[in-house]
Amino acid sequence: MVFIKDKKGFLLRCVPCAVIVLGLIFLGLWLGRPTGEVATAASRLVYVPARVETVISDNAEADNEHYEGQRLGDQELEIRILSGEHKGEILPLTNYMGALFNVDVREGDRIVVRLQTEDDGSYYASMYNYDRGMVVGLMLLLFAAVLIALGGKKGARALAGLVITLACIWFLLIPGLIRGIPALPYTVLLVAVVAAACLILLNGFSAKTFCSAAGCIAGVAAAALTAWIVGKLAPIDGFNMEEAEDMLLHGTELGLRIRGLLVCGVLVSSLGAVMDVAMSIASAIWELRESSDRLTVKELFRSGMQIGRDAMGTMANTLILAFAGSSLNMLIMAQIYDIPLMQLVNTDSICIEVIQSIAGSLGILLTVPLTAAASARYMKRKSSAENT
């Protein structure tokens, strides 16, 4: 009997997720089809890992007076290409080091270099950066190991959900936006599908999952609506974002629509925190309903709100502090230049950060009553149906 129950739970969790993932894969294949663009200069650039074989000369000196000990100058190197068409070849490279672009290397260090091929077939290497792939990979493995070790099966499912989310952003959201699919409805639809897939993967196809997904989608939609309204009133949109000029130069010819990208950013950035709150509220009301069938819809809702209030402050701070952290350098420069408050508040970049953080936080706050109301009503109705 236990085997049958586990099998049923497995099917309820995996079958809907498999259907969703297959649908997303087909959409990704359609979005990833060749577009027939002509080759550009960038397509003749190849980034490959390399190892410093010899430091022929080192003319760099530490500047302790102005740049906190950064070594400035240049190095003449011999490097060995470690992968790609030119694997094993040894090439000369001049490494120029300034205060900002500063890749200070020694023999044996791993770096990433640019190989540029000229029209006559010749090629040369230039310094790009340190090879940080191994460090980043180890960090990802550590994160996955800790998540699975502490979370067990739930942790493994959460990791799978994270992979699905990142894959949807890279292979579906971004290609779709570049191809000119209307940004707002497309992002809302994709966010809803991702939320449903992740929640089903965690808890199976159940009433708790349905209520948390409904609350999550409603909360994210509330955040997007807030950002859209404020953007209309401000007015401010995707054309005011820092990367707008580059997107105008290189993206619009492919079909990219820039105006709605600000709201899309709010949708994506608030999804994780909103999903967390929605699942917490739905799970709490589910446990209350399981412990006592006598609780009314109003009592379940009140209990959900009480639990949600404890999470509101910390989760709202999460988004605001995240956006503040990402804008820390800009805020430092604002104080260094003693920018007046009137100018600061009306700066595009500051206004965008404020809109994104406040809209996302409002989405979290509204998720609590929306999820509590949906969970209380649906689960009480389900309980009444089971008792009849």
Q: Can you put this structure into words, describing what you see?
A:
The chain crosses the membrane at residues 12-31, 133-151, 158-178, 184-202, 209-231, 258-286, 307-334, 354-374. InterPro entries: YibE_F. This is YibE/F family protein. The protein has helices at 2-31, 133-178, 183-203, 207-233, 244-250, 261-291, 297-326, 328-336, 341-345, 348-387; strands at residues 45-58, 61-63, 70-81, 90-97, 110-117, 123-130. The chain has 388 residues and is α+β, with helices and mostly antiparallel strands. The protein folds into two domains: 2-19 and 143-387, no CATH class; 41-131, OB fold (Dihydrolipoamide Acetyltransferase, E2P) (Beta Barrel). Strands 1, 2, 3, 4, 5 and 6 form a six-stranded antiparallel β-sheet that branches. The longest helix is centred in the middle third of the chain and has 46 residues, at 133-178.
Descriptors:
2 domains; OB fold (Dihydrolipoamide Acetyltransferase, E2P); disordered N terminus; globular; 6-stranded antiparallel sheet; 388 residues; 10 helices; alpha+beta
